[in-house]
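Chapter review: from sequence to fold.
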Amino acid sequence: MFLCNPSYSANITIEHKENRKVLFYSGPVKVGDARRMRYMLSNNRVDEVWLSSGGGVLIEGVKIGLILREYGTMVKIKKQHRCASACTVAFLGGVIRSVEPNGRYLVHAYSRYKDKLPTRKGESQAALKRRITSDPKAFLLQLSNEQMRSIAVMWASRLFVYYRLMIQPEPRAKRYTVIDSTEERNIKRALTRYGNKAYERYQTKILSNDIKRITKEGVSAAHEIAMRIERDAMKVMLTGLKNLEQQNYLKNRAPEAIRILSTMFESRILATSDLSLETLSEYGFTNVPFSQ
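The token string follows.
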């Protein structure tokens, strides 16, 4: 899952800046960067980690964040630098987290479909278009089933657990397990019923109108509908998490984690939201004020 579409790997360097030994991570977040980050931190004692990235692979951002927490890092976004999308997810791994004035922390909702609809293995764009327009019902049922009963359930569970663990005030290094953890599996099971209900509602209340629109307008409409279904699926998951929190099903710091998750997924897909220093502090993205 991408939060943007990078083409080059990030640079991870050790630099001496402002009388500190700094690990500087800059560029797109790509698969393998977490492994590179672990190597650098295990072989170098650094005072701070500086992040500057427009985003990239979401799950890699989670993995980088877990490594940053394991090594007890102080993470900063320096002035004139930006941290967007998957970078903001990684940022939360810092034990101490700060953003300087004129540093930018930008969030937006993820999308599998931001640039184009995914093709099947070996399928051309022309074949994809024929498949969608010849049987829009089959296309929509498959897509809505995947989003509402699988993908949204997985990402809501995984990111909730990650945020809940990362925002804790405990100022010590610790290795956490998020992916396929007991907590993640339990939340996925609990959220599945919300996904099932959303899928049933889609079939009975919305599907027919979407079929008509694709029949009339073609693949461009299918692209817009796919992004809407994706977004609606995450809204259902956020509602589910809020209900589970009210039922005392979730662990400590659940409201704070849900608020961070909501800030991300209630933002737009096609444009980022630039969070102010005040919002970052109030919502727990940062946990120390920046001082000159």
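Two observations follow directly from the output. Residues 11-108+272-283 form a domain with the 2-enoyl-CoA Hydratase; Chain A, domain 1 fold (CATH 3.90.226.10). Residues 2-7 have pLDDT under 50 and may be disordered.
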